[in-house]
Design a protein that fits this description.
single chain, about 140 residues, mainly alpha, two-stranded antiparallel ribbon, about 5% strand
């Protein structure tokens, strides 16, 4: 099912959103001081191209102060525009019944586009139970 979702996503929104991330990455790599933001944009371009089957979790070794500072600079250096692109894509995708799950995924990606530092993208199922951001299935009944 995730392959079908990824193919639909790729055709309907993934290519265009990934191009936006690549452009943001190239622009951020022009200045030496914003190269880390360009690298982050390239990582997010891959996630925006093929998101299903992966999830975003908090990095266990993150420095909260540096992440907050990085997210503030990222917001100015392209995060706002990328998030607006995700919101626009989400609204357009939600206009059709088939696109509603994709639109909801785009809205989730808008939050990541605003504040990507301090998070990492991992394959679903590789996060140990109890880790922050990990899905916890409900306990079995009886």
């Amino acid at each position: 099912m995730k392959t079908l979702g990824n193919v639909l996503w790729l055709v309907l929104a993934g290519v265009w959103l990934s191009i936006g991330y690549v452009i943001a990455g190239i622009l951020n790599c022009v200045l030496v001081i914003t190269i880390p933001f360009g690298v982050q944009a390239f990582k997010l371009a891959g996630y925006a191209l093929w998101p299903f089957g992966r999830m975003v979790v908090h990095r266990p070794d993150r420095d909260v102060a540096l992440g907050c500072l990085g997210n503030a600079i990222w917001f100015v250096c392209g995060g706002l525009w990328l998030a607006l692109g995700h919101i626009l894509a989400g609204v357009l995708l939600c206009l059709t019944v088939v696109g509603i799950p994709l639109g909801l995924a785009s809205f989730k990606l808008a939050g990541l586009a605003l504040a990507p530092f301090g998070k990492q993208i991992v394959p679903v199922g590789t996060v140990p139970p109890g880790a922050p951001g990990a899905y916890q299935p409900p306990p079995a009944l009886g």
